[in-house]
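User: Round two. Same drill as before: sequence, then structure, for each protein.

Assistant: Same drill it is. First protein:
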Amino acid sequence: MITLSNIAVQFGKRVLYKDVNIKFTPGNIYGVIGANGAGKSTLLRAISGDLEPNKGTIELGPGERLSVLEQDHFKYDEFTVMDTVLMGHEPLWKNMKEREELYGKDEMTEEDGNRAADLELKFAEMNGWEAESEAAQLLQNLGVKEEQHQKLVGELSNTEKVRVMLAKALFGKPENLLLDEPTNDLDLETVEWLEEYLGEIEETQTVLVVSHDRHFLDSVSTQTIDIDFGKVTVFAGNYSFWYESSQLALRQAQNQKMKAEEKKQQLEEFIRRFSANVAKSKQTTSRKKMLEKLNVEEIRPSSRKYPGIIFQMEREPGNQILEVEELKALDADGSVLFDHVNFNVEKEQKVVFLSRNPKAMTTLFKIINGEREADGGKFNWGITITTAYLPLDNTEYFNSELNLVDWLSQYGPGNEVAMKGFLGRMLFKQEEVEKKVNVLSGGEKMRCMIARMQLQNANCLILDTPTNHLDLESIQAFNNNLVSFKGNILFSSHDHEFIGTVANRIIELTPKGTIDKLMSYDEYIHDEKIKEQRLKMYS
């Protein structure tokens, strides 16, 4: 349990929130949402003790532990992977170290013996004898292989370190758990495992999650913490419920003719429908109860702004889109990224490319965009096809002293007013368009790249992990437009919701060929025959 009493946080004159009084109760997972800069991570830092609120108190239940997903990936470089995970349960780790010290003595005094007996008792109470096997199981479930468990953390790649930090946070089932962007750098299979793991949390556990992954938030959250209007509000339901209800409330607010009673009835009907569609699971059962108690007065429009992302085609695509024959690509170390890749893209197909090695998708997109040579095979674009490409790494585009307006003017026709209009649609304020592009944040660069793509009026979009660095509002707007886009889309993504709503064809790239299916993403990942086929293709 986590209790916030009269919490206020401000930086200089800017007040993030004040008068925050919330009790986070056991058995619940709270999805924390808010616009960029609203203070989502700040709230978690205040609870963890990493940041001192300007006012108020934060208390845990008596004798409860708090565990945090740490963001410093170099802090444990000198420790083994196993020891790092065990450190996640601080009382157990201290016990182990003290026991080691006592048993390492040449001679033990009577006092030492009594202390050792106490430690042994507490060690057993904390499930110490099973600790290493439980830590090993967590690591394996998160994709860290057994042969890496005794390696130093400093020897691991950054994506492997992320998994170790997550295992450390989860280890020992802490009563209170804070997870800031836990799905970052995880593949889709590991995210699914994490969803299932959190779906089975103990009734004694309280979890707060900040994430840009809408499917993940929807899967795990029993309640939503919305940071908006300078307030922190607990909201019944998951992210989708919050988004759809706030959009409905916004439409109602804009409809001057609708009477108050009509609005109330419409909102009540919306809550009933949403409650009826909730699937049966531990989370969703408690979520359903909360939705049934929800007062329609609590539903109101959000202050969030959504970028205007609209892709339009200058010309209709012909029948031939893209033909690929026996394409092959090797990694820098000579290992096979993919081989025997054959496919023909047809009109209106939106294809998601998957692989266990994310380099495979990036390499394919580079090849079909003429940015690198294939190691075998060929490809051919139809003569009517125009492409707009969103690369994974956009660094080279921003090594420039140009301001935003001049930068965008390089990529399409239009005067300064038109360029400022495009940038305004992507939520750049008037004073921001004079900024130099080499000082932009990751999210700002991504919004510039999307504006650049819109100027091209292409009929085929190529998107390499398009939700990277974007906030939930930008992801939602991007997603909505791609669903209605009439041209072709070739893309890769870690975002389950993005794939599930956009893709109508799935091609998995493996070293032994492709798996190519016209089916939904959820059908694909849960199909037993495809699971067997994937094992063979990667073996």
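Second protein:
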Amino acid sequence: MVKLNKNQKIIGSVNVLKIKKIIVMTIFITASIFAFSEKLNIILGEYYPDAHIDNGKLEGFVIDILNEIKKNSDLTFEITVKKWADAYDTFLNDENYDLIGLIAPTSERKKNLKFYKTVIFVNLFIMTRYDNDQTYEELKNYPVGVVGVLDGSFLIDVLKKQGFNEIRVYQTNESIISDMLNEKLFSAAIEDERIVSHYIIANNLKPNIRYVKVFDSTPLTFASKKNSEKEDTLQIFESTLNELQKSERFKLIKDLWVGISTSLSIERQKSINRLLITFIIILTGFVVTLVFFYLRSRKMVNTINKANIQLKNSYNEISDLSYKNEELSEKLEKMYQIFFSFIESEDTKAILNNAIEGLVKLIPEAEAGSIGLVTDHRWKTYAAYGFTEEINNLTLPLDKVIKVGKHVQEVHNLDSCNEDLSMEITTILTKSGATNLGSSLFMDLYSKERFIGNISVNSKEYREFSDISKKVMEIFGRLIGIFICLKFQEREAIDAYNYSLKKLSDVAERFDMETSEHMNRICEKSYEIAKNLGLDENFAQEIKTYAYYHDIGKILIPIEILRKRGSLNDSEWGVMKKHPEYGADIIGNAEIFKVAKNIALYHHERYDGSGYPCGLKGEEIPIEARIVAVADVYDALRSERPYKKSFSHEESMKILLEGDDRTSPEHFDPKVLKVFVKIAEKFKDMY
């Protein structure tokens, strides 16, 4: 046995006391943390991207939101994730759970639950395979009409009301999509488009789907039980959630998980990460093999020594490149900011002016720059920076345009290339300050191998542009080219769609014994009213264009009703009143055609609420529909119809202002009617 002396015993006692103190302090700190923090039990439905398990880790849009709330409050959370139907039933029947998310606030749920501020809106829709040509109405009927839907989803009630005869309930959205794509199911009802995008990306599938019905957007948020015992804690949660939604951090989280294009980047990044891990494993095996052979043979020493010499030589090159890469990274970051600003404006000219200004500021050798595009077989300055306003009047024949190809080229003494230009063009160049340019960078823009313009930056002095400046110009030029090509394609698509709608409108009006002159007159009147109301020129032009399609829905009205002489009976009038809704369905839900849809759907609404199909009143009716309503009624009064004679201008104005058995001044927006009265004289001789 070893005996301890007195000093050793004292030291041992002190150490024991220190350990006890540490234990007491730890218990005290832990108790304090729990004392000053409040816990909420939260249950979530498992589906991407709100809450899902990836490689054993719980992550998602809702998880990131809860983590941010925890950082900005004294709250802690106990999170449970289940299949949606199980999660909802558990929440209703288990008093231990305080919150559920994300959930749609239906009228039935609002009876028992308190819903918080909307976190996100999602689109509900019904889809089928792209090669399935069944219509929405045909898909409702069994056996074709077998539709899959998630167990516990409020879409089940929606489908029943819509008239679906056979509804098949699934436990996961993924199973629904898989069965539909594998032809085990004719159609699928999904609450959230993000689920479909994720499934297609994750499984590397072609998007072989077609939407047959898109419902109105539905809000999703958190909900708690009414009269909860944790009301104070839930108020802290609610206020923290509201503050978070106002922050830039919330926007970043939303962009990360909600944006479809961002989701695609995430999935691709995950794929890259998996490839990287595989590469590392292979590389590790290679190194192990290399070491094994090194130990077997000393000859490998010479090879490694040579490799070391090469690495040392490469190090100096890497060091030199490091600074250049840092400089390029800064410029790329600024370029990102410039192109990110594109989404804040719909004005193409303003976007390109901001872009060329940003490019000139990115290239230290440059003092000015311009973007020129081909229009009507001539090159024209479309955007510029560093020149006077006169540069915007510069146009050139295509054979006088400097062309350098698809890559950046340096051009010196630009005046020597412009010696045979006309006096008018030379004068514009002089007044705009575009002469005596020492050095320039040029890059051509192409769309499907067709020259569509170019981009250039210029310096008054003769100088060499750096490699980094040329790289920045190359990247910038390609992005500008892509943007312009997309704009061209968008314009072509819009023109094609407008052409189709115009032809349908022509057919509809001929069914109704009308002519294109009728539509053109309404377009002109609507435009004049819009301008005199002080509306923006672009908006006024949209109204002028889309007023042509106001009665496009009549193409679906039986011709015997359209051409009936005399009054319609109640049944026939009920059919006729559906043409605004038919027109809205034909035009569709694309945001770019919102004005067209509003005109088609609401031009028979009345300011006093007596119109159809929705019975809207006053300012509830979009201004474009209120304008077309006045133009349409005036034109109808001036035109001969099977059931009425035509009225003179004076008679028509009297009916608009005083009314008759069909028309009342209360039907119209007073401001619109006042403006029309002011300008009506110019329409007197149109008929």
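The longest strand covers residues 209-225.

User: Perfect.
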